[in-house]
Amino acid sequence: VYCGFSKSQVELSINDGSGKKVKDMMIKDGQGKNLKFTSEVSALNYLSQNGWTIVSSYEDTSGGGTPNIAFVIRRSS
Predict the structure, then answer these.
(1) Around Cβ 52, how many Cβ atoms within 10 Å?
(2) Each residue's pLDDT tens digit, 25-36
(3) Distance between CA atoms of 53 and 66, rounded to whole angstroms?
(4) What is the pLDDT of residues 5-18, one digit of tens each?
(5) Rounded CA separation 14/28 (Å)
(6) Beta strand pairing status for 36-37 and 10-11?
(7) What pTM, to 2 d.p., does this model score?
(8) CA-CA distance, 43 to 1, in Å (whole number)?
């Protein structure tokens, strides 16, 4: 699973390799709105509290423009 978010707005998306569009991979709240976080750390805390573990991280420059911070994560057992 690939997790990335931009430095300008902290919204979280999970890419599981299924080929979905980014807008369809955004983490949503109970009302279906994109969850927004105040910082990268708060987004990572959210993942941790919901059973995810960081495997590694890197700077993703594949989209051009401002690089994203990307995390490879897995569901904790």
Answers:
(1) 18
(2) 888 888 988 888
(3) 25
(4) 555 567 777 877 78
(5) 11
(6) antiparallel
(7) 0.68
(8) 15
